[in-house]
Amino acid sequence: MANSAPRTPTIGGSSQLDRIEAQLGRIETRLERADPLLAQLPGLLATFGNTIDDIAGRDGEVNFDLRLRRALAVIVKLGDPGLLEALERLLEPETMAVLADAGAQLPSAAADPGEARGVFGLVGVLREPEVQRATSFLIHFARRLGRTLDARDSNSPGAVTEREEAQS
């Protein structure tokens, strides 16, 4: 009778140990992304405490209690994994750069909205290269957002594939 080492059970050609190691790697990556937020937690809690003290001093106990309950409800919602993933995507450097660029233009656009234009005036403005670039961006964004919303509505995966993106 030959002495053989115990075999690790396999699932779909991959050992359970490999699957566990892969899952641990994903968990480790997520925890590493949370480290900067956790490092800021003491300061955030101190700010939160100061804000609570200010509110309690102004509003008295009745409004303070209501505000505290609402704040805690928001904190519970912020713990939702789906929301956390969305916030992580929102805070990616590329996304923040686009938002910062758009935000930088809002005050000057609001201060000087320009003269009113009719349909023919709009067609003329669409010939300007910077307007064409911004319009192209908005159209591309609208298509991707529409696909994502359709996918969410049909309960299918919400990510737009590279092939779908190339077709647009």
TrEMBL record:
Pfam families the record matches: DUF1641
The organism's place on the tree of life at top rank: Bacteria
InterPro entries in UniProt: DUF1641
Protein name: DUF1641 domain-containing protein
Top-level taxonomy: Bacteria, Pseudomonadati, Myxococcota, Polyangia, Nannocystales
